[in-house]
Amino acid sequence: MHLKFFSGLSLLAFFATAVGCTTTRDLYYWGGYEGMLNAYYSRPGDMTAARQIEILQQDVIDAKNRGLRVGPGIYAHLGLALADVGNVDGAKAAFSKEVELYPESEHMLASMIARADKANAAKKGTAKPNAVTPPLNKGEQ
Question: Residue 94: CB partners within 8 Å, gap ≥ 6?
Answer without folding.
Answer: 75, 76, 78, 79, 82
